[in-house]
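Please, structure for the following, as tokens.
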Amino acid sequence: MSASSAIRKRLSDIGMSQRQLAFALGTSAQNFQNKLHRDNFTTQELVEICKILGLTLTMVEKNPGKYVIDYDTSE
């Protein structure tokens, strides 16, 4: 699952809009939407997004450059 897919899924699960997340990140809705569309986030941005959305970001060492975002759907 891409970071963008995981973020979209989590937003849907918790009833938060992309605009609300962009505001919480201190960026414009347009900038956030562009990053989401390109699936182009820095590690620092992903860490912040995960904090806001209650996600856990895990870097997978055996696959350099790949990441796994997981969260408990029972919340």
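The first helix runs from residue 3 to 14. Residues 9 and 15 are 10 Å apart (CA to CA).
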